[in-house]
């Protein structure tokens, strides 16, 4: 449309914008309709798939994980509600619900030892020991179950420290300093004050402060028994104590 | 799992910080609880009745695998906790020796009572020494029981009229006359 100067010109421009907008909305609507139809088709195919492969989904963690990804792509959450189509079809709502309950139990049971922070790997190992061998449990399953727990407001959270994932079951907030210490501790399961100062370039005060807080929260334990006389701060959530730990 | 002889050691025994008395109260409470249970368990299975704090031969106080030892303070703390609970007693004012009651005195009294019944000794006379090392005691928990503890348990039963303790011919030869009604 040719631009004309003056008020008339402005009115024309406005009318033109309106026209474009209408066309735009129409196009969007058509696209949306098409997408909705595609999604509906995809969903029913997904349901068909789920029906056919119900057993595989229940028994095979890798398969289950891929199934979840497929569902996510089409905006389906099989765990959204315990009742309803998906839960009934697959019964996997129950699977994750039960898993969630067991996770809570394990976290509570290990809390005296690790202060409410547990290594995801260790959690999975303990879970597998509890479950009958019929249904395998993967880390992915754990993470999903925990995310459901979060929705219930139970204070559970997964935090990443370096290469590891830790499951937190207490309201203790870990700040960045604490996180860095935990990451440092992953190498040997413990840190010394000197090490923290040196590797993170902190002042002595900052290091001791952070370590004391971790001690107070029950996340760290003190060890003054090494023959070199240096105090070590051990983190039960980092080291699994099913293997003997010795450093010389 | 690490073992001391036949005894299976719990996981925490191999985790160095558990050999340091923890400064944070809550953590320390959990630590003390674990050690109390371990000490009682170990003494029961090894039939240890007395622990000397300074001695090097109580195996639980150090773990050479991780090169850690409990300090004197830690040992005293754990044993004192057992004393507070009535599962141990200091034998001296200096708190250097501790009597471990992995069975309480009352439990020992019950064991003696059953022992007498099982062996048909309701009317008999036995020396104290025979109770703890005689043929009948073999294979029972009474075998090798600490004399101090045995005397305490016997006195409990004496109070209830189940037996009478008397001095024998020599200075430290005590005997017991049971008077429990047979069934």
TrEMBL record, chain A:
<dbReference type="InterPro" id="IPR040608">
    <property type="entry name" value="Snf8/Vps36"/>
</dbReference>
<comment type="subunit">
    <text>Component of the endosomal sorting complex required for transport II (ESCRT-II).</text>
</comment>
<comment type="similarity">
    <text>Belongs to the SNF8 family.</text>
</comment>
<comment type="function">
    <text>Component of the endosomal sorting complex required for transport II (ESCRT-II), which is required for multivesicular body (MVB) formation and sorting of endosomal cargo proteins into MVBs.</text>
</comment>
<protein>
    <recommendedName>
        <fullName>Vacuolar protein sorting-associated protein</fullName>
    </recommendedName>
</protein>
<dbReference type="InterPro" id="IPR036390">
    <property type="entry name" value="WH_DNA-bd_sf"/>
</dbReference>
<dbReference type="InterPro" id="IPR036388">
    <property type="entry name" value="WH-like_DNA-bd_sf"/>
</dbReference>
<keyword id="KW-0813">Transport</keyword>
<dbReference type="Pfam" id="PF04157">
    <property type="entry name" value="EAP30"/>
</dbReference>
<dbReference type="GO" id="GO:0000814">
    <property type="term" value="C:ESCRT II complex"/>
</dbReference>
<dbReference type="InterPro" id="IPR016689">
    <property type="entry name" value="ESCRT-2_cplx_Snf8"/>
</dbReference>
<keyword id="KW-0653">Protein transport</keyword>
<dbReference type="GO" id="GO:0043328">
    <property type="term" value="P:protein transport to vacuole involved in ubiquitin-dependent protein catabolic process via the multivesicular body sorting pathway"/>
</dbReference>
TrEMBL record, chain B:
<dbReference type="GO" id="GO:0000814">
    <property type="term" value="C:ESCRT II complex"/>
</dbReference>
<dbReference type="GO" id="GO:0005198">
    <property type="term" value="F:structural molecule activity"/>
</dbReference>
<keyword id="KW-0813">Transport</keyword>
<dbReference type="GO" id="GO:0016236">
    <property type="term" value="P:macroautophagy"/>
</dbReference>
<dbReference type="GO" id="GO:0043328">
    <property type="term" value="P:protein transport to vacuole involved in ubiquitin-dependent protein catabolic process via the multivesicular body sorting pathway"/>
</dbReference>
<dbReference type="InterPro" id="IPR036390">
    <property type="entry name" value="WH_DNA-bd_sf"/>
</dbReference>
<dbReference type="InterPro" id="IPR008570">
    <property type="entry name" value="ESCRT-II_cplx_Vps25-sub"/>
</dbReference>
<dbReference type="Pfam" id="PF05871">
    <property type="entry name" value="ESCRT-II"/>
</dbReference>
<dbReference type="InterPro" id="IPR036388">
    <property type="entry name" value="WH-like_DNA-bd_sf"/>
</dbReference>
<comment type="similarity">
    <text>Belongs to the VPS25 family.</text>
</comment>
<protein>
    <recommendedName>
        <fullName>ESCRT-II complex subunit VPS25</fullName>
    </recommendedName>
</protein>
<dbReference type="InterPro" id="IPR014041">
    <property type="entry name" value="ESCRT-II_cplx_Vps25-sub_N"/>
</dbReference>
<dbReference type="GO" id="GO:0042803">
    <property type="term" value="F:protein homodimerization activity"/>
</dbReference>
<keyword id="KW-0653">Protein transport</keyword>
């Amino acid at each position: 449309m040719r631009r004309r100067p003056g008020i008339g010109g402005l009115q024309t421009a406005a009318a033109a914008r309106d026209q474009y907008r209408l066309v735009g909305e129409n196009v969007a609507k058509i696209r949306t309709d098409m997408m909705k139809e595609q999604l509906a088709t995809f969903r029913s195919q997904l349901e068909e798939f789920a029906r056919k492969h119900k057993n595989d989904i229940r028994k095979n963690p890798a398969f289950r994980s891929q199934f979840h990804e497929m569902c996510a792509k089409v905006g389906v959450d099989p765990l959204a509600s315990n009742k309803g189509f998906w839960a009934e079809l697959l019964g996997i709502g129950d699977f994750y619900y039960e898993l969630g309950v067991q996770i809570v139990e394990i976290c509570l049971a290990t809390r005296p030892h690790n202060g409410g922070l547990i290594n995801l790997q260790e959690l999975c190992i303990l879970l597998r020991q509890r479950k009958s061998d019929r249904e395998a449990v993967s880390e992915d399953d754990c993470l999903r179950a925990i995310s459901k727990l979060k929705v219930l407001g139970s204070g559970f959270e997964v935090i990443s420290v370096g290469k590891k994932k830790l499951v937190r079951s207490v309201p203790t907030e870990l700040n960045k300093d604490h996180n860095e210490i935990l990451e440092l501790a992953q190498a040997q399961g413990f840190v010394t004050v000197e090490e923290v100062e040196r590797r993170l370039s902190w002042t002595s005060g900052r290091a001791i402060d952070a370590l004391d807080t971790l001690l107070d929260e029950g996340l760290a334990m003190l060890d003054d028994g090494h023959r070199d006389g240096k105090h070590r701060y051990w983190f039960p959530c980092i080291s699994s104590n099913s293997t003997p730990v010795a450093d010389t | 799992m690490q073992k001391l002889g036949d005894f299976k050691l719990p996981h925490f025994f191999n985790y160095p910080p558990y050999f340091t008395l923890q400064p944070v109260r809550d953590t320390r409470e959990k630590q003390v609880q674990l050690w109390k249970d371990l000490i009682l368990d170990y003494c029961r299975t090894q039939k240890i009745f007395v622990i000397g704090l300074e001695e090097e031969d109580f195996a639980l106080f150090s773990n050479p695998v991780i090169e850690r030892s409990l300090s004197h303070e830690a040992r005293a703390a754990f044993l004192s906790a057992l004393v507070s609970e009535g599962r141990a007693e200091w034998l001296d004012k200096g708190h250097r020796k501790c009597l471990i009651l992995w069975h309480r005195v009352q439990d020992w009294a019950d064991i003696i009572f059953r022992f007498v019944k099982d062996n048909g000794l309701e009317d008999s006379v036995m020396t104290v020494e025979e109770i703890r090392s005689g043929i009948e005691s073999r294979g029972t928990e009474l075998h090798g029981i600490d004399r101090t503890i045995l005397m305490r348990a016997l006195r409990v039963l004496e109070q209830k009229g189940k037996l009478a303790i008397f001095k024998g011919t020599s200075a430290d030869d005590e005997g017991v006359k049971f008077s429990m009604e047979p069934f």
